[in-house]
Amino acid sequence: MSEFGWMEAGGEYFARHVDAAVEAGLDGASQLPGWRRRHVVAHAACNARALSRLVHWARTGEERAMYPSRQARDEEIEETARMPAHELAALSAQTERELRADLAGLSDLQWNAKVRTAQGKVVPAADIPWMRARESWIHAVDLGTGGSFSDFPDGLVDALLSDVTTAMENRPTGPALLLVPLDRARTWRVHPGGTPREGDLVGQVTLVRGSAARLAAWLTGRGPAPEPGAPSIGPWL
Q1: What is the pTM of this model?
Q2: Strand order in 177-181's β-sheet?
Q3: For helices 128-142 and 85-104, what crossing angle results, to 10°?
Q4: Beta-carbon neighbour count of residue 224 at 10 Å?
Q5: Which residue among 90, 97, 139, 155 has its CA within the 20 to 30 Å range from the CA of 44?
Q6: Distance, CA of 163 to CA of 156 (rounded, Å)
Q7: The Cα angle at residue 79 between residues 73 and 80, in degrees rounded to 5
Q8: What distance in Å separates the CA atoms of residue 147 and residue 217, rounded to the nearest whole number?
Q9: d(CA 54, CA 217)
Q10: Three-state DSSP class for residue 124
Q11: For 170-178, which contacts have Cβ atoms below 8 Å and span 24 or more sequence positions?
Q12: Cβ–Cβ under 8 Å, residues 143 and 37
């Protein structure tokens, strides 16, 4: 499945869990500290709008940041989260549809246009479907309505492992890891600060084993370490 396919499937997966969250009560606690379920839904809607701003940038060349500032982002989420439950759910679905339509209007040249993420990373517009897919699948789990990383397509889980381990490698410090998914025929390595991969010594690299889904949940801060002795890895983003 392509990144666009993962995005579409993730939107549907998120929508199902939004429906379950509305039924259970959006004022209930989410899996994210300090956020109720309505904050998660609001964040997803605001994220779709923010990504549509990047699509506009790619299509027109007119720079539009995802958010003016971190404070503006947080304020938008808080304001949106105050909406009545069914209106908030409808807004989540609407912004998802609008983002898909915006992306569908990009030309081949525009897909290669450079835009900047909320973290300041410059990427091609072609990365936007992956950015949205990642948000939809993971935040569906955050709603606390029964979603699990074990629901995710295998290819998506592998892409998440690659995404997070690459981000960890770009940090100046952190634990060196060898991730061994028990249900995959490959491994993922983490060497923060660009430490050479050759000649690793036993004891310098921590081996962490578990299913690929459990490893992905742990790396993204959505689950415990798959086995005892795993080091603290800090926040994902």
Answers
A1: 0.94
A2: 188-190, 177-181, 206-210
A3: 160
A4: 11
A5: 155
A6: 10
A7: 90
A8: 12
A9: 27
A10: strand
A11: 174/233, 174/234, 175/206, 175/231, 175/232, 175/233, 176/200, 176/204, 176/205, 176/206, 177/205, 177/206, 177/207, 177/208, 177/231, 177/233, 178/205, 178/206, 178/207, 178/208
A12: yes
Query: CA-to-CA distance for 95 and 6, rounded, in angstroms?
Result: 17
DSSP state of 198: T
Average pLDDT across the chain, whole number: 94
| pLDDT tens profile 97-109 | 999 999 999 999 9
**pLDDT value at position 198?**
53
CA dist 170 and 191 (Å) reads 9
The 10s digit of each residue's pLDDT in 108-117 is 999 999 999 9
Phi, psi at residue 205, to the nearest 5°?
Answer: -120, 130
All residues at 6 or more sequence positions from 233 whose CB lies less than 8 Å from its CB, including other chains: 168, 174, 175, 177, 218, 219
Element (H, E) at 3: helix 3-24
Question: Which regions of the chain does DSSP assign to beta strands (E)?
Answer: 114-116, 122-124, 177-181, 188-190, 206-210
Give the pLDDT of residue 195: 54
Q: Which two tokens stand for residue 88?
A: 């908030």
- In angstroms, rounded to a whole number, what is the distance separating the alpha carbons of residues 14 and 104? 20
